[in-house]
Amino acid sequence: MLAGCAGNATTSSADAGPAQPGGTLRYGLSGAPTCSDPAQAGTNQTIYVVRQVVDSLTDQDPDSGEIEPWLADRWEVSPDAKSFTFHLKDGATFSDGTPVDAAAVKGTFDSIVTTVGAAKAPLAGSYLTGYQGTTVVDPLTARVDFAAPNTQFLQASSTAQLGIQAPVTTAESAEARCLGTNVGSGPFTYADYQQDRSVTLAKRTGYAWGSDVFGHDGEAYLDSIEFTIVPESGVRTGSLSSDQLDAVSDALPQDAPQIEATGGRVLTTSNPGMPFGFQPNVSRGVLQDPAVRAALVPAIDRQELVDTVLGPDFKPATSTLAGTTPGYVALPEVTHDAAKAQSILDEAGWVPGADGIREKDGQKLSFSVMFSPVFAGNQAILELTQQQLRTVGIDLQLELVSNQEATARQGTKDYDSTYYNSTRADGDILRATFAVDGRNLNARGPIPALDTLLTDELSATDTAERNALVAQAQQQVLDNGLWIPTIELSQAIGASSAVQDLKFEASARLQFFDTWLSGR
Predict the structure, then answer these.
(1) Are 295 and 344 in contact (CB under 8 A)?
(2) pLDDT (tens digit, 9 = 90+) per residue, 444-480?
(3) Residue 393, phi-psi category: left (phi > 0), alpha (psi -120 to 50), beta (remainder)
(4) Interhelix angle for 338-347 vs 290-299, to 10°?
(5) What's the whole-number mean pLDDT along residues 180-193?
(6) Closest by alpha carbon to 227, among 48, 372, 54?
(7) For 344-367, how does the pLDDT look when each residue is reduced to its tens digit (9 = 90+)?
(8) Rounded CA gap, 3 and 412, in Å?
C-alpha cells in the first residue's frame, strides 16, 4: 500500500550480518514533539517518539494494509459495525507492572473522550466519534460500543493515538499527560523528557508481546534512543555525516550527496492521508467566494513545487487524498492551468488592478495562509506558491507561527486559510478533516451531498462500497473548495551505515523495534 519508493523504505543490509542487540541510537528530529501523550500527538516528529512507548490493540501491515494482532490476538466486529470486541493477549504489562487488561482499554478510550477531549486530541477524538463506552466483558475481553456504525474504528485501533496507556496515566489531566511521565506497554519507556530540547527512551526489559508485523520476537534490540531537536537541515546533515547523530528527519534533496558521501543513505516512503494543502476559512474574506477557491486549484503548478523544492522522492498532489491512501482516486481538475484560473476569476468579476493584483468592489484579491514548521520544506513551498498565485493576480501573504499558536488559532478559526497535511492509512481521514460536526476548520455550513457521504462511509462494511463513497467524497471536497492540494508528503530519513532495519509502519512513521546498530 505504501508504494512510493519501496526500495528505499528500510535500512536493512545483507552485509551487516545477524542483528546485534545493544547500543544507543542518536536521532535528530527536525522539530520538537508537541506532547509526550500519544492521544494528543499530531505531528510526525511527535509520533516518531510516542509510537515507541505504547502498543495498540492492532497493527496495520504496511505492505498489504491488513489489520494484524498486537495487544489483541483476535477480535469480532458486529454486522452493523457498532460494536468491536477485542480479546487481549495474556501476560502483557505496562512498564509500572500493572496488567494490560480490559479495564485499561476502557480507561484509555474513556479518558480520550471525557478528560482530554477532541480539542486537544483531534485525531483520537475523530476515531472515537459516537463512542458510547467500553464494556469489560472479562479481564481480557473489552467490547467497544458506538452509537452509530463506525467501520473505520478497526483501522483506528492500530494508530498511536489510540495506543493503550496505564491507569496511572489515563487518570491524569490532559496537560499532565504531556510531561513525559506516560506509562505504556511498548518496547521503550520514557527515561527523560525535556520539552523543546530532547527525549531519551530506554528499552523495556522483558517485552514479549510485540505486533505480528514486527520482524522479531522478544525485546527491542536497541538499549536506548536519544532524540534531540535540530531544526536546521544543514546542521542535521552535518551532524549525521560527522557521526554525531545516527539518523535524522527531513533529509532534503540537497542533503543527500553529503549523507551518501559518508556511507549513509536516505530512506523514503510516501505518506497516506491528506496531502499538504490549503484549508480555506470560507466564512471570511475573499475565500468566501467559491470562484476564488476554484481558481486556486489550477493556479498552482504542483510539479514545479516538487521539482524546485523537494526532488524526485516527492510527488505532486493529484487529489484531496494522497495516492497511497485506500480509496484514493485521481481528480483531473487537480492540474496546473493558469489560463483556466484567470478565466474563472475574470468571469467572477475579479479584474487586475494597477499592481497586477485583482480587485472586485474595492476589495483586493488577497488572503493569508497560516502555517507552522512541521515540515522543513513548508516555507519554500509556500514562497514559490506565492509567486505562482501572483502571476494570476492573487496576493498570498505567509504567516509562519509556532505549532502551539497554530493549534490555538485553529480552535478559534482565526485565519484566512491554514496549511498542513494529515497522515492516516484510511480514507476516513476525509471525515476527520471535513465533517461539519467535527473540527470544521473550513468554518462551513451544511453541504448535504458531502455530509451524507462522510456519514455513509462509516457504515459501509464492504470495501468496494466504502471506496466508492470515499471517491465521491474526494470529488465533493474539491468541488466545494474545501481543500486546495499542493504536494504529497514523503518521509525522507537520513541514516548512517551503522543503522540497520529502521522501518516505516503503515502510516509512514518510524518503528524502532527491529532497528539495530552494526559495528558498534
Answers:
(1) yes
(2) 999 999 999 999 999 999 999 999 999 999 999 999 9
(3) left
(4) 170
(5) 98
(6) 48
(7) 999 999 999 999 999 999 999 999
(8) 37
